[in-house]
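Quick one: sequence plus manganese (II) ion SMILES, need structure tokens.
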Amino acid sequence: MPYRMLHLADLHLDRSFAGLGCQGDLARRRRQGLREALRAVGQAARERGCDAVSVGGDLYEHERAGIDTERFLVETFSSWQPIRVLIAPGNHDALLPGSLYRRAEWSDNVHIFNDSHFEPVELNDGLTVWGLGHREPAWQGDPFACEPVSGLSGIHLALFHGAELGSRPEGKSIHGPFRVADVRRRGFSAALCGHYHRRRVDAAGGLLYPGSPEPLTFDETGARGPVCVEIDGSGEIRFTPVDLNRWWMASTACNVSDQSSSAAVVDTAEAACRAALAGLDPEHTMVRVDLTGTVDGSVPLDAYSLEAAMKERSLAAHVKVRDLTTPHVNAAAVAAERSTRGAFVRAVQAEMESAPDEDEAALLDDVMCYGLMALSGSEVGLR
Ligand SMILES: [Mn+2]
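Reply:
Sure thing.
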């Protein structure tokens, strides 16, 4: 009988989702969805006959997780008995004094790794998991700064939250840095990790990032869920991704050059939005639409109104519009107008003629652009 585990990481319970421009009822549904995702993991573990569930950190977000989340986790893990639950805290759920991990009363099947060096837990005869926990959010230690396990008999797995430096996404923070080659060099058959939200199943290198089980940012597209890890007596390890996500992310870009009214922009953007939603469940999909191109400065592009119009028509759970357009201003034509706009343009043009340097000229370009946006009735935001 192979030993079977289900590995997850980066669930981020209690996340606010405010960064996606999502609030109120939708943010609440998304948070509820994260809890349901954990329940689904338990269900899948039972159905697949798993002996354990391992968590590679960022199970919750420390500054948001309160007593209700604590009870939810205690009750959920307790209900999974006799499946064992092994938790390696990460940077978002670090083992700070008074943290949820430290204060909760866990059922006997739960083990939390609370040292920043590997400590062993024997799972069954000859199979050991070595785990560690981040004790502070800014921990940057080397997870593999340990005695190699190569000299020991049996099969050894590592479980931790860390940043594999060879595959680090741009801008991703470095917590627990290591390299994939360290895994085998130190004698481990595989490292079950968390931190990167994109799934990476590398059987050859012995590295597993399951990715966030439900998408948390617009970049987290595609199917998601935990990964089943099977270890047979010879030490052979098999990874099988299990897709369980209920929420989806979609991103699209839409060139709105030459559109002469905000209604035409909505039509074009909506078509792009619908194309991005193809094959997905709109009620559980969040779409980001990037508007690109050069648009006449007098066309009011107000992201909020565009989002509202597109949400209503496409039925997507959430639409986020990013205005990346370059406004085009036909200053000569506007300057001839007998209007406030005309007077404004003439005044800015007069200043431009006497601009002492390039910085001042660039500033006056912005004055022209934002001034015309304001005068066209747009909500003025930085482009
Ligand atoms: Mn994370």
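The radius of gyration is 26 Å. Residues 10, 12, 58, 92, 195 surround manganese (II) ion (CB under 6 Å).
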